[in-house]
Design goal:
Elements lengths: L4 E2 L5 E2 L6 E7 L2 E8 L7 H15 L5 E8 L22 E8 L7 H14 L4 E5 L7 H4 L9 E4 L2 E4 L2 E3 L2 E5 L14 H13 L6 E7 L6 H9 L4 E6 L6 H12 L6 E12 L16 H9 L3 E7 L1 H9 L9 H17 L1
Parallel strand pairs: 4-5, 6-12, 6-13, 7-11, 7-12, 13-14, 14-15
Antiparallel strand pairs: 1-2, 3-4, 8-9, 10-11
Helix pairs in contact: 2-9, 4-5
The structure holds adenosine-5'-triphosphate and magnesium ion (MG).
Amino acid sequence: MREVRHPGKGDRDLVDLGMVSDIRLGEGRVEVVLAFPKRRDPLAEYLAGSARAALYRGLPGGTEIEVKSVVMEEAPKNKRSNVNNLTLEEVAQVRHIIGVASGKGGVGKSTVAVNLAVALARLGYRVGLADADVYGPSVPLMTATEGALPEAEEEDGREVIFPIEKYGVKWMSIGYFAQPGQALIWRGPMACNALKQMILQVRWGVLDFLLIDMPPGTGDIHISLVGDIPMEGAVIVTTPQSVALADVEKGVDMFRNEKVGKKIFGLVENMAWFTPAELPENKYYIFGKEGGIRMAERFGIPLLGQIPIVQSIRESGDAGEPAALSSRPDGLAFIELARKLAEAAG
Ligand SMILES: Nc1ncnc2c1ncn2[C@@H]1O[C@H](COP(=O)(O)OP(=O)(O)OP(=O)(O)O)[C@@H](O)[C@H]1O
Ligand SMILES: [Mg+2]
């Protein structure tokens, strides 16, 4: 537990902070109880996840590991002081909350979300982006903000977290609370709470758009997220292969099913064609030409835009300087996409 540091407490470790209140050993089993001085430590979920990860690293494979969190003092009454009691106060001044989703992983959701955010900001909108991928956060790398530590403050008995501002966008990611290279291991409900905190406990202020970079898939986390965050709707990212069709269907259904009834602002066809840097006029439709349009027609949603595969999009993502900052054709494609989304959102 000495390996687990509390970023909100000058990086002191859990032992030093007196937070390890109990360690119970059983046959092939370890249980650690962490004690939190107050109910609403914004890092509680993160610390429990880190403690679990440290135990997995340090103990023989197959050991059953449990990390429990307890609160040392009862929170005073009438305070919204429980993770499950997050209020919608911090997103009250956000005009459009829009999820960027897909049924399938690796289609370029994060790339599209980050560039869309930067492009909307370049068009003059006030923009925030919450990275809801608690297992594999991408925003710190894609914006070169790794190592940034968001400030947290207690206000009227509530903890608020301040986003990191760069490129005219307010960013928030669970990655800011992890040690570099540290894998985050979460159990389902904890992951859900952690990521709701990354959205609802953040002082976004007045925004035109809050984009949510959704984790890959269409599981429980998604359903809970769509239900608990007042999202207006979603942008669905896909690649043109016809095999992606079933995944798009899942992605669309997640928002558009009867229970949820959210809007789909449109489809973004990523990797629509390949353009080599030395032949910028050439388009090679590696996965076929009409895939995106046909998909959009089939689901009765607009095709918001098409983004080519170009090396510079990947490179600028890895370098933390989103392509949308440039005036290259790939940068302009994101600006055009942002304009279409703003138009669709109204
Ligand atoms: N249009 C593009 N041109 C070139 N490379 C791209 C393009 N879109 C995405 N990539 C690259 O593809 C990889 C995957 O993209 P990204 O991380 O955005 O996908 P994702 O859908 O968010 O993945 P995950 O499901 O893991 O969250 C990254 O290396 C990214 O730089
Ligand atoms: Mg991603």
